[in-house]
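> example.struct
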């Protein structure tokens, strides 16, 4: 090994010797960990740093225990996010999708992908992550591409895929449909508008969608409006007088506003369902760019908020607007770009997932998967129990293109699928492929399988060498993607291979600022991991993060609190260096005739070490890394350094074997958490293996 013990040289030493690589031919018991694929354009943030540090600690611990470990890394193509980033880049170059065309755009996008990956890939390594980089997978690689096609064709052949105009959540900025679970909700103070509709007054937060109203609705049990139900009234609108019926539907909340609502089936999910039950027509008022359509007359072409403000004076003038009240409510925004989403009707592809979800519920209820914390089992079951069909199409160019081919361009434009063919490649001359791509989670949901060579063969098996690593022993994620990713992995794994995707699912808590807010660029409250590493080093940063690695428990941090912990663990590392210097560099050779002397202090430190090994092993097995870190810290600093080493200074030669034994065991115990420092100090020993990574985990006698 290079005598210069910096992190880069140590990491290169590990990687070049193949210590990270799983051995598919090994007879050792296996232990597999699947790295959640970071987004291609994502910078490493504190959450990633903690997540990856936890994965690495478990992987290193299991290797030391004698397991054949596979920690498999990968990268997600991140459809919406990547496309948005790339479009901004080419816009600065005075280019656009329209100017380039699809083929040229994709050619340039792949070049950009390579540039981005080169600039960020090192950030996924610099924390010391001992992943098998030889097996790294990208979600648009050929393997996942085949897996996605297999999934789509299977669903198609089973009659589970359909296409049609349905209401979806639409992001006007990203210009694509998104799932409900890809929304965030911001509390906003807006206005509630009370509008006169014939003899009735109703309340709405969205007067601009008035042009799309096709009925008024009340709750059937609301006695105030019993005599109005079924009757038709002439009402005043901004487009002239219009007749509108009053219907009764149990979805109406009699406590909201006046108890009367306007039904706009084209722009509200509840209204859409009411409309289906009462055969109401659908009128589109807001288009996919977030602007009012021609149906809005002189307000056509205006953005939603602009139109809302512009029509107020006319609403007052015509006596339609009765009054306004302050109204605090949650507004749905796109989790990626934070734009207000618009429910609207769009021609999309869907998968029927009801029966698939039921099978996933059976798997979860059978307790075949260990959830940390335990309450996530119930949370996932409740969501799966009320799941709706999955909208799998996205109006993007970056991603897995939907493998549906139409006989002609006219068929493609009309969306008729009666004569369509399912194929990865063109079926022949004249065939036109569907323009849309598949939801990112359509490929990420297959991640536990596609990373292990699935589907191998027509029936969908694993690569024979990699099959031993499935189901994965350990998976980790942030709670916010429990529905988007975790639930889907369970559903798809059960459906396609009739097994669980992983044995243990660890939901780490979120790191937030001191006010409990998520870190974001807009708030300016973020803390970059690189800042902590520059100040305190990789090992100290990892140790600081482990103190927050409690399943399901959010941590509130600031630069000051993390600096305090980083400094503390940097000092701990310095203490350990001084201990190693005393024991090894300042070693005093024993005299020729000297014999070991039984000493009470030696016996006590060995007993304390055994107890520490026992506790740390238990903490790691139960994935309570924060407790393991505390145990090692307490033993090294107070029991070993402050007490035992001080007691040996007057009998140094006698104590030397015990000193060396304890130090070596401490380094092995600490290696999963502080890999660089422990390797550096381990190399000081005369009797050692090539690397601390191939040492044996201590076994207790008590």
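> example.seq
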């Amino acid at each position: 090994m290079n005598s210069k013990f910096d992190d880069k040289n140590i990491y290169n030493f590990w990687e070049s010797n193949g210590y990270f690589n799983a051995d598919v031919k090994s007879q050792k018991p296996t232990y597999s960990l699947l790295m959640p694929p970071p987004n291609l354009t994502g910078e490493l943030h504190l959450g990633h740093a903690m997540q990856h540090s936890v994965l690495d600690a478990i992987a290193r611990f299991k290797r030391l225990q004698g397991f054949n470990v596979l920690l498999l890394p990968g990268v997600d193509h991140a459809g919406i996010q990547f496309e948005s980033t790339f479009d901004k880049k080419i816009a600065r170059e005075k280019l656009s999708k329209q100017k380039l065309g699809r083929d040229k755009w994709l050619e340039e996008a792949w070049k950009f992908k390579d540039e981005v990956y080169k600039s960020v890939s090192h950030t996924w390594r610099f924390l010391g992550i001992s992943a098998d980089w030889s097996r790294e997978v990208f979600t648009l690689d050929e393997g996942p591409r085949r897996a996605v096609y297999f999934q789509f064709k299977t669903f198609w052949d089973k009659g589970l895929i359909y296409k049609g105009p349905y209401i979806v959540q639409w992001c006007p900025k990203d210009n694509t449909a998104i799932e409900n679970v890809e929304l965030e909700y911001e509390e906003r103070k807006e206005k509630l508008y009370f509008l006169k509709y014939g003899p009735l007054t109703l309340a709405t937060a969205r007067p601009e969608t008035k042009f799309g109203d096709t009925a008024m609705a009340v709750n059937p049990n609301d006695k105030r409006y019993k005599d109005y139900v079924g009757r038709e009234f002439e009402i005043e609108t901004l487009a002239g007088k219009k007749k509108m019926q009053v219907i009764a539907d149990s979805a109406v909340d009699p406590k909201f506003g006046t108890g009367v609502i306007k039904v706009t089936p084209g722009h509200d999910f509840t209204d859409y369902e009411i409309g289906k039950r009462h055969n109401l027509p659908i009128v589109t008022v807001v288009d996919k760019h977030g602007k009012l359509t021609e149906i809005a007359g002189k307000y056509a072409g205006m953005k939603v908020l602009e139109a809302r403000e512009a029509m107020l004076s006319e609403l007052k003038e015509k006596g339609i607007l009765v009054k306004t009240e302050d109204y605090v409510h949650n507004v749905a925004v796109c989790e990626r770009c934070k734009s207000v989403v618009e429910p609207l009707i769009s021609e999309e592809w869907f998968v029927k997932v009801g029966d698939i979800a039921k099978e996933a519920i059976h798997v979860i209820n059978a307790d075949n998967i260990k959830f940390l914390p335990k309450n996530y089992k119930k949370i996932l079951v409740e969501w799966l129990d009320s799941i709706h069909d999955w909208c799998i199409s996205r109006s993007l160019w970056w991603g897995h293109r939907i493998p549906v081919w139409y006989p002609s361009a006219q068929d493609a434009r009309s969306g008729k699928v009666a004569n369509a063919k399912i194929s990865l490649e063109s079926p022949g001359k004249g065939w036109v492929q569907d323009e849309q791509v598949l939801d990112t989670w359509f490929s990420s949901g297959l991640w536990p399988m596609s990373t292990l060579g699935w589907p191998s063969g027509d029936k969908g098996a694993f690569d024979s060498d990699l099959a031993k690593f499935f189901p994965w022993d350990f998976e980790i994620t942030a709670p916010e993607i429990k529905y988007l990713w975790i639930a889907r992995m369970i559903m798809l794994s059960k459906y396609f291979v009739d097994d669980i995707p992983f044995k243990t699912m660890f939901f780490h808590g979120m790191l937030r600022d001191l006010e409990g807010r998520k870190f974001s660029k807009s708030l300016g409250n973020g803390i970059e991991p690189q800042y902590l590493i520059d100040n305190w080093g990789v090992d100290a940063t990892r140790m600081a993060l482990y103190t927050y690695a409690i399943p399901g428990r959010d941590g509130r941090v600031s630069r000051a609190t993390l600096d305090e912990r980083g400094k503390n663990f940097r000092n701990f590392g310095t203490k350990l260096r001084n201990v190693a210097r005393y024991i090894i560099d300042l070693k005093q050779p024993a005299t020729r005739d000297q014999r070991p002397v039984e000493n009470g202090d030696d016996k006590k430190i060995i007993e304390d070490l055994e107890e520490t090994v026992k506790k740390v092993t238990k903490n790691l097995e139960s994935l309570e890394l924060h407790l393991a870190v505390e145990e090692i810290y307490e033993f090294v600093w107070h029991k070993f350094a402050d007490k035992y080493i001080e007691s040996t200074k007057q009998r140094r030669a006698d104590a030397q074997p015990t000193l060396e034994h304890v130090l070596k065991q401490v380094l092995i115990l600490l290696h999963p958490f502080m890999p660089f420092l422990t390797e550096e100090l381990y190399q000081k020993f005369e009797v050692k293996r090539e690397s601390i990574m191939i040492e044996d985990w201590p076994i207790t006698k008590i």
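> remarks
The chain has four domains: 7-153+436-508, 154-165+348-433, 177-342, 529-694.
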